[in-house]
Amino acid sequence: MDEPIILPWTIYIIDVCNSISAVAMFLSVLGVFATMFAFIVIYVDDVDIIQGKKLLKRLMIFTTVSIIVTIIVPDKRVGYTMLATQYITEENVLKAADMVDRIADKIIRVKNN
Fold it and tell me: What's this model's pTM, rounded to 2 decimal places?
């Protein structure tokens, strides 16, 4: 049997990566808004500048890490694309082209008879 077998764990891992990517995206957006809000509150109100800068630094680190995770971890579409391209080889493409040629020849023979 030539056909590749895709392990169920592969599909599960792709789905988990999709969930991680979605959570990271949500946290990134949340972090951006929290950082903007904290920046406004710190510089408009009378908040201790040292504590405010510490908070801003932590929020920026949190947001940066979330954005990096969002970029690095593939979503479901990319995961399945990577999985599919693993099995697309020149040999498989040639086999598919040969099969299409044989099917077309059979259709022509049936039509001519």
Answer: 0.69
Give the separation between CA 29 and CA 26, rounded to whole angstroms: 5
Please, what is the angle between helix 8-44 and helix 49-72, to 10°? Answer: 160
Residues in the chain: 113
| Block residue for tokens 């951006």 | 32
Asked if 69 contacts 24 with a C-beta cutoff of 8 angstroms, the reply is yes
Question: CA–CA separation, 80 vs 102, rounded Å?
Answer: 30
The one-letter amino acid code at 112 reads N
Q: Which amino acid is present at 80?
A: Y
pLDDT tens digits for range 13-53 = 999 999 999 999 999 999 999 999 998 888 888 778 888 88
